[in-house]
Amino acid sequence: MPGLHSIDYWILGGYALFVILVCIKVTRRSPDSDELFLAGRTLGPAVIGLSLFASNISSTTLIGLPGAAWEYGISVANYEWMAGLILIVSAVFIVPVFIRQRLTTVPQLLEQRFDPRLRKYLSAASVFLSIVLDTAGSLYAGALVLMLFIPGLDLVTTCVGMAVFAGVYTTAGGLRAVAYTDVLQSIVLLVGSCILAYLVFSEFGFSWNNVTSQLPADKLSLIRPIDDPALPWLGTLIGLPILGFYYWTMNQYVAQRLLGARDAEAAGRGALIAATLKLLPLFLMVLPGAMAAVIFTDLERSDTVFPRLIAEFAPPGLAGLLLAGLMAAIMSSVDSALNSASTLIMADFVEPRKPGMDHKQMAKIGRYVTLTLMALAAMWAPMIDNFPGLFAYLQQAFAYVASPLVAIFLLGMFYKPLGAQAALNGLICGHVFSALMFVGAQLGWHDIHFSIVAGLLFVVTGLLAVIWQILLRGNEAFRPDADHLSVVSLVAYRDLSLTVRIGAVVVAGLTAVLVIGFW
Length: 519
Fold this sequence. Notes:
Layout: H1 6-26, H2 33-38, H3 45-56, H4 59-72, H5 78-100, H6 107-113, H7 116-149, H8 155-202, H9 208-214, H10 233-238, H11 240-250, H12 252-259, H13 264-277, H14 281-295, H15 305-313, H16 318-353, H17 359-380, H18 390-414, H19 420-442, H20 450-472, H21 485-495, H22 498-517
Helix pairs in contact: 1-8, 1-16, 3-8, 3-12, 3-13, 3-16, 4-14, 5-11, 5-13, 5-21, 5-22, 6-7, 7-8, 7-16, 7-17, 7-18, 8-14, 8-16, 8-17, 11-12, 11-18, 12-16, 13-22, 16-17, 18-19, 18-20, 19-20
């Protein structure tokens, strides 16, 4: 693997310096807790949309999407367009509820609907996923690439170095620093990805006929047979919506940008901007990865497709820009996950126990929490090297942990009779069943694809919660005086502008065209 030219190092250094200057610019004031965690609830739609996109298109995505496409084909892009549809639903029906209820964290909604136990349950699960998957996965993927280009780096040192860089500016500036640097990073990321896609397509003479003639038809199809090892059609139908709903709606790591919006209109428009951008990864990351199957036939690991493309096609200077895009993805994911996990711990665990603390005390403790979480993620990241593949590691963990959470969240939104004890019992039973399914998969007792498992866990958890409600009906404490969330959702939907509603229809139509075109 060729090394970097001196101009590439200058570009990387310039990018790092520019991020630091932007961070200093937006964080000259000492933020209180509301500023640290929610940017003072002042974010506009453009910042929200670009920040959502940058935080999601992480180093794990830049590495995982091309790698999975190289190995299995473009069906991995189903995660991307499905995310757009989920964002549309969230923008119209769910996010306005968040804004109307003045939430600091998504788990607060479960306390309003049920009781504090459900809030803490969801919060603890979200912190775990944020650190073990989002933060550690991004650090690992970034380290993997940098080690290939910069001689002498080792996995542990590289993970720690990136964690420190992201952790320091996240700790100093909070969500405002995260969101505004994400805007910069999303631009770098889009430019770098466009250039790389252009270079790969040039190898085929910019002819789609050349691509289709050299790649098997199944590698250029989004909808795959039921026995497909990468993503069967049933998994796309019943599993991806569940995983996507957790990631884009319940995951504090993503939802925090929406919670920091200045109003429901800004949050809705920002979500639609992100939904539109989610149509791009098929063309910028997935198709180049699939084309690389023709160009590179000697790779031992799919995770090396992206760095190999940079090494083979990017001349000096351009390689530095592309690696700056990768660093942008790493930083946007790590800073987002650290800030959101810190918010969850402070708002859902510390503040309820010490309600007398002022904002500055909360902010100070929040910074220490962020640094602690940074250290934990940096220690865990090298352990991912022991797993079979980065993309599978991420998606399988989400499938087994998040699906029961989604079931209870949606039941709480739309099934008024469900009480707190039944919801908690159903959630615990759902996760016990999930653990049994996971162990069974590791021991070879079943080979059900994890995307189908997600749908199964969702249904089983929902049924268990309803059964518990029937059994506990005589002892359940109801809150008939509280507005039910489905009613709040309907009222909030009516408050949205016609622009957001029409925008949702347009983006949904574009998504349908994309899916039909690559069916």
